[in-house]
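Dear Dr. V.,

Thank you for agreeing to look over these. As mentioned in my earlier message, I'm a first-year student in the group and I'm still getting used to reading structure tokens, so any feedback on how I've presented them would be very welcome. I ran two proteins. I've put each sequence directly above its structure. The first is here:
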Amino acid sequence: MAEKSHKLVSRLSYSFGAFGHDMFYATLSTYFIMFVTSHLFSKDSGGQSAKMIAYIGIMIMVLRFVELAIDPFIGNTIDNTNTKWGHFKPWIIAGGTVGSITLTILFTDMGGLNVSSPWLYLVIFMLLYITMDIFYSFKDVGFWSMIPAISFSSKEREKTAAYARVGSNIGANIVGVIVMPLVVFFSVNTNNGQGDNRGWLGFAAVIALISWVSAIIVGMGTKEVDSDLRKNVEKTTFKDVLKVLARNDQLMWLSLMYALYTAGMQLTNALELYYFTYILGKPGEFSILAGINTVIGVITVLLFPPMAQKFSRRKVFFAAIAIMIVALFVFLIAGQSLPLVLLAAALFYIPQPLVFLVVLMILSDSVEYGQLKFGHRDESLTLSVRPLLDKFGGALSNGVVIVTAAWAGMTSGKTASDISTSGQFIFKGMMFGVPAILILLGTFVFYKKVTLDEKEHARIVNELEKTWHKRLDTEGKESMQDIEKEVAQATTTFQSPITGTMENLADVSDENFASGKMGKGFAIKPTDGKVFAPFDGTIEATFPTRHAIGIKSDEGILTLIHIGIGTVKMDGTGFVQYVEQGQHVKQGDQLIEFWQPAIKKANLDDTVMVVVPNYKDIQDFNYLKDSGEVTHGDQILDLSKPTKRPVGNESDSKK
């Protein structure tokens, strides 16, 4: 009960952290730009305000692009941080504190410096903005990197991630619900529902406070697991990221597709409040849309797993893009009709979580694609690409939004009645036309070049199973006498990892195992779904489908435990993994749990194959039992320490 309570507190704390984190990001990426273009300067500022807005817009875009280049170094700094509070929490709290303070200051005119001393204002603005953005990135990288550190259980990670995704969705959208009501509430002059500078400062202060409190709650409510697995993490540099992009063609094409898509998607999202303010003339009604999107986002996230399983990820992706294009067309013809605008905006938002999750899944699969193709697993480098591309899209859309607002005349306290027909035409072209082109270009790249689907990934994982042990061969010895001495000193008792009926490996229906290609061992028809460590050792190979695991004993025995035949196609459904690659386990520790009805429902064989790939290096391979009923923990094999035959001494190796 205490453990369950701790897990629930951890999930809720992390979820609230995601809530506050995405409130901050939505405020920064969407509503701060609205403040700069529409409220930072008054109508009396004249042509100077347009120039200053342009300078600020260019500065924001350039600074955000520069910040992209230092993100990998931020990751390295976090990886190398060692405190009694862990790697991440100090940066989450520091980032939340500094980010909240600087964001609040940025929502002011800094005592009138924007007009009285514009160049000084720009210098201070630049310093504050880059400070805020860097500390936000520390918090962002630290926060989303915490999931593997909170638990080694895949099941617990999935639950934590689900809680976080719901929290982040609500946080990102609830800002839209409260932005205009809060602005008007804190304003001295309502200004036709647009509020004034004091109102925007009040809104920013509320968001900053919630973001800061959420960071503190993450620090207090979560705990990082201390493990050797989290030490000596490969350092990521910008050069390394580019190297991975260049050599992994599926990752490269997916990145190009997502860069085009996210730039178009974020541009339309960022201009929606402008539409309500300067086309409809009803900024207060934007809260309705944000409320609708909050509900839609939660439902869509929950619907993705069954949809992807029933229709395939590619079909879900293309259906989502089709809905987005329809939404942009409805937006284009909506005019002054609030119901049509709400319908169009809701339709545009529905596919966004679906596309995000499809991209995330393919991005994760490209880790194994690169591993099979190049023999090196670039997990951290590969997964660092998505946030880079999200920030790229955000930086690009920020710059375009400011240019669009200035070009269409939506600045300095203007209202809907002040916007000319040509201004509306320019605005709609940038809000609907440009995003449609970018999204369709990204879709074309996806259709033509991104071929990594569920079936291809299953084939890749199947191939990796055959080769995972090759890099783990023990080093050569100087003489056969040394080998014989070590063999005499070390033996391993190999316990059954599962309960069931023992079978001859040659009788299983998988040719790779039956033929001995995968190694020497045995099979078990399971009567229980729990898999345990057969000896003390280190987890050397895990698979994203969680249907198999590779372990190396402390004496060097390599073992692959493979659950079922063809179960790679289940893509992890019905499997829970309790350990991670690099983790040291004791004999009898639980490794995996699987649900037998799920395997039977998929019309697959649930036979568990247990093989020793480096059996040729084991002189004494003795079966203590080869048939009948077994219980996990029963002694099955007695094995000598594996040795590598000496290189260049062929005659000795044949003794």
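The second protein is here, in the same arrangement:
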Amino acid sequence: MDTGEEFGPWLARQLKLAGKTQAELADELQLTRAAVSAWITGRSTPRTTVMTDIAKALGTDVGTVHTRTTDTQAGLPVTWYHRPGYHDGGRDMGNAAAFAFDADVQVLARETCQNSLDERLTENGRPVRVRYTLHELTGETLESFREAILWNDLFPHYSAVSEAAANQKVGRVVDAGVRDMYEKGRLVLLRVDDYNASGLIGDDYEDGKFAAVVRRQLESLKSGPSAGGSYGLGKATLWATSALGLVLINSTLSVPHEGRTERRVIGRLELPWREVDGEPYAGPAWFGRPDPDSPGAMVARSWWADEETVARLHLTRESDEPGTSFLIVGAHDVASLESRSDSDDETGGVEDGDEDTRDIRKMHGRLVEALGRDFWAAMTGGGSRLPLLEVSVRAFQNGKEVVPEKQVDPSAEQPARTRALRAHYEGTTVDRLTEAGQVAARNVPLKLPLSGGSHGTLGTHQAVLLVTEAEGDREGDGGKNQVHSLRGNRMTVRRAGVPRLPLGTNPFQAVLLVGEAAGETAPFAKEAEEFLRAAEPPEHDRWGQTEELTLRWSPSAYRRISALTAEVNNAVRELVARPKRSSSREGGEAVRKALTVRTRPKAKAPAGPVVPVLDTLDATVGDGGEWRITAEVSIPRGDEIVPMVPIAQLDVRSGGRPKLEWAELVAVEGCEVEDGTLRFTPGVRRAKFQGFTDVSSHPVRTTLTRLVVELRAGKGE
């Protein structure tokens, strides 16, 4: 018979749970206290006949004592522990970390899959496997689940939140989630399982991955320098996606804790401050076994559950491979409403109130879309490089599969980019694109700054740029003429178009590999990883100015990234430019001589410098949230043209206009850009330039703003 934990530690914990001392157990067994002490310390083990008596004393069956794969139920049953209100009267109206992200399954997919990649076990060389399971419960299945999570104990707390919902944003979300469950008789569960990952190792309270996820906020304990996360905010997306603020967890550990590895279970509830039966509660609550070492055995800690319990909680894992299962209770996808086509509004296809944020089929499709878009590179292998990730999505209703499990295929979701990356891994890239299907490669430099604000360059990291033709209109290939940038964990961090492309350029896709993604042997790969990781915001969707970048390097360190972007754009333009056709000089010269063009006498240019004027402006919002402008400048006649500085500002009703930084300024015609200043070609009457703002300098979301662009003489003062 398979056994779990060593007998001594297991028995010691059971005595604590049952509230018994070693002396009391010895009396019940009619043995000496020394005999029980020898079992606890591991100096001896009880005979088989004594095992039966121990099971009776602990109120369990003899099989549990023999196998020791779970705790007994004696004394301290699993329950909810709600954190008491603060003694100083302070109130938290929700977990602020959850407000960093929208209730969006695509954001959830990005954050959870990134976390799984960061915790992949690398020793065996296998990818981390992540599975997303949507499960809609109704009828008896729903009732059975609510009984398993002790819903009747939770309901008074939800009722208290609902009563105060009008004054609390979190309260309104929770109230809507509870009402949907009762009015429509359903509950949507979204489970995220990963395998070949570290699992939530460590103590319940001390430093470790378990405490960082379950007990704490804003703590990030990642396994390596190429990890995607760094803020400790990503886990908040789990609770943000739950309309009930409830997540259950089952972890299989890669490192034993208390001598055990399988079915370490706990739940965490995130609610705002509330008052129930005259008692104030601070916010969070935990679902677990009361800790006998806490005052009054009140605080709930994780427990080692049996197979029947994890099945009732919908937390059964498919194997004993290390990793963690997160069950989001009451999952909803508010952001899916934004994906409705405009025709729905124009034709009346969707009436107000008919939108369903809990449609598991729509959520299934959005998960597949996001995973293919953001993690295609992590799922791609070639040559000696193996994929880092395998992902699938499935959907059930009351245990019956309604959407078959779909394995996300990077070559189907991102065919051109996948082809480019495989060619790089297999060493089949070329210097220039001359035939269909080829992949061109080019090294581009990233000059890394010295830390601590010191002037100078630490070294030059050579990133790898890959360019190939786009796959026509194949579904999932995303916007054409874009560069997908990624680093060590191969998650797409930045997606951006390439400005000022030559006319007639064939549609293409480009991939930029930076840091360890360019190869662990690339010069300064680890330093580039550290630098770019610090340049990412909590969403990990761009590189730019951040507080960490300023503190660890300098306020101007982000300019190294802007320089990298300029190098990449120049390289792409060169690689995709069509070769110029040769023309007959003789024929052109003959035509020129045969033409007579009447010209008016030139007007006398005014003396002194002339000031160019902004004439027309075209602005759009890019995929990365940046303002993208194309501006034309009218230039009066004159011998000397004053250099001008483009200034981007946000239009506000009162006060000074906030100034935005430029990520890139590009001269199109009639001018050139030098250190942010436009210098105009002598004699031109019109000029054109393009600009792209630095999203990290935006104080608010771009779609909520209006842009003002001015030209100022000199240095823009």
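From my reading of the second output: The radius of gyration is 31 Å. The first strand starts at residue 79 and ends at 84. Does that match how you would interpret it?

Kind regards,
E.
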